[in-house]
Specification:
By secondary structure, the chain is of the alpha+beta class. Helices cover 28% and strands 19% of the residues. The protein has helices at 18-32, 35-40, 89-95, 115-121, 125-146, 160-165, 211-219, 261-267, 281-289, 339-345, 372-376, 382-403, 415-422; strands at 57-65, 68-75, 80-83, 106-112, 152-154, 174-181, 194-197, 237-238, 274-275, 294-295, 306-311, 321-324, 331-332, 357-364, 406-410, 428-439. Strand 12 and strand 13 (331-332) form a beta hairpin.
Length: 458
């Protein structure tokens, strides 16, 4: 039951590398601190949602310092960075088919830590980890574009070299993605951070390692190493292609002018509950249109993932229907879910009873069990599909913020009931459910409790 003493650290110094300053500023804006927390000078609330508020991921930054590639491990809670004392950073980058953007750019590496979600949510905590990381990586990518320096998110690269460099596997971490950030002006958020030199690596025990976390890590099946791709995206592309049919006339695509995005990133919030009443159909479609925002990733333009909108409480009843947001874009006839059915489908979360619309993100089950050969041929694996879901979920959050309506994501749901209510094919697996409506901040987010209350588990 004893705890080891905290390792001694070298004297703190302020960040000096331009790329590190930029990366830390982007992490503050895109992931670590919401507008409300910034105004209070605290680090509490995050800029992105997380199941149970556990945020099961960490970051590292690779950038040029004094003319040489250098790796920094990021401690978000303490606002400190640790400069790695050893390791061939340049070699790891080459082997991973990555490079540091010139003139003060950086590579921000996201690493997932599944244990943080799985100790609370069991096996499905691994999916929650991927969804949460998708929210964070997607929001970071949007933050770069909002600064007029659009980054590129790489998910298809050999991860082992970076994993070895950052000692990820032995610390029960998995390299999730790498964001290549071109040089841009950093704001003063980096000034709150300090940098330490790493202690002797040979004598350092892996951080925060326990036999429970090792057992959880070992319970995961072998994580496939993507063969990698040198393909650079020709241009930003939407993560979901939305049809024109079904939308009100004049509904725009995407989030609009990137200069407005920093304001949206700062204002995003999860609704604790939804109030009774209808919402204008145009507001729902304005929120949903954010899903078509173009971003720069190395994923294929075509994806097996689908999106479906169940609009049930529009002010204009003619818009209440099940709408295919991808594919053919047709409306599905049928009975819309009642309030009681929404509660049942969301595992008895009464605070969601009065939601006006539901967005379901789903994919064929065959796509979730793809082989390494299929990945090499361009097919998406579970990790990539979950990234799409998380990044699209973040876009929907921002679209709802722009439209002035409430939004919240739900990971625990009755998949069979949603299949029936939305008319989805049995061959599809629902990965993520997001609800829209009139926000009610007087509600309680039960998933913040120590036990996963919202999962029908007691």
């Amino acid at each position: 039951m004893a705890l080891p003493a905290a390792p001694s650290l070298a004297p703190a110094e302020p960040p000096s590398a331009a790329g590190l300053k930029l990366a830390l500023s982007l992490l503050e804006e895109g992931v670590l601190t919401s507008r409300g927390a910034r105004s209070r000078g605290s680090h509490g609330a995050r800029a992105v949602p997380s199941a149970g508020a556990v945020y099961p991921y960490e970051f590292a930054v690779l950038t040029m310092e004094n003319g040489r590639p250098t790796a920094f491990l990021v401690d978000s809670d303490r606002r400190t960075c640790t400069r790695l004392a050893a390791g061939d950073v340049a070699g790891a980058l080459r082997a991973s088919t990555l490079e540091i953007p010139a003139d003060g750019g950086a590579v921000i590496v996201a690493l997932t830590r599944p244990w943080l979600s799985m100790r609370k949510y069991g096996d499905r905590g691994y999916l929650y980890t991927q969804l949460d990381a998708g929210h964070a990586a997607g929001n970071l990518l949007l933050a770069t574009t909002g600064r007029r320096a659009p980054g590129t998110l790489r998910l298809r690269f050999p991860r082992s070299p970076l994993s070895d460099l950052l000692e990820a596997r032995e610390n029960c971490r998995e390299v999730h993605s790498a964001l290549l950030v071109p040089a841009a002006e950093a704001d003063d958020a980096w000034a709150r951070w300090t940098v330490h030199d790493e202690a002797d690596r040979e004598r350092r025990e892996p951080a925060w390692r326990s036999w429970l976390e090792e057992t959880c890590w070992d319970s995961l099946s072998a994580r496939a190493e993507h063969p990698g791709s040198t393909r650079a995206p020709d241009a930003p592309a939407p993560l979901a292609q939305l049809p024109d049919s079904g939308r009100p006339t004049g509904a725009q695509d995407g989030l609009g002018d990137p200069s407005d995005w920093p304001e949206l990133l700062a204002a995003r919030a999860s609704s604790k509950a939804f109030a009774p009443g209808t919402v204008p159909a145009a507001d729902v479609w304005r929120a949903v249109s954010a899903l078509s925002t173009p971003v720069r990733t190395d994923l294929p333009a075509d994806s097996p993932m689908g999106a479906t909108l169940v609009l049930r409480s529009a002010e204009e009843p003619e818009h209440n229907a099940v709408h295919l947001l991808t594919g053919e874009g047709a409306r599905r006839p049928g009975r819309l879910p009642s309030t009681d059915e929404v509660v049942r489908a969301c595992m008895q979360q009464r605070s969601l009873a009065d939601s006006a619309a539901v967005v379901l993100l789903h994919a064929p089950r065959t796509a979730l069990s793809g082989t390494a050969a299929e990945a090499a041929a361009g097919s998406e694996d579970l990790r990539e599909l979950a990234f799409r879901c998380g990044a699209l979920g973040q876009l929907l959050y921002l679209g709802a913020t722009r439209a002035g309506i409430g939004v919240t994501g739900v990971g625990g749901f009755d998949a069979a009931l949603w299949h029936s209510l939305a008319g989805l094919p049995d061959s599809d697996e629902i990965l993520y459910v997001l609800l829209l409506g009139r926000p009610d901040d007087s509600g309680i987010k039960f998933d913040r409790l120590a036990t996963a209350h919202a999962q029908n588990e007691r």
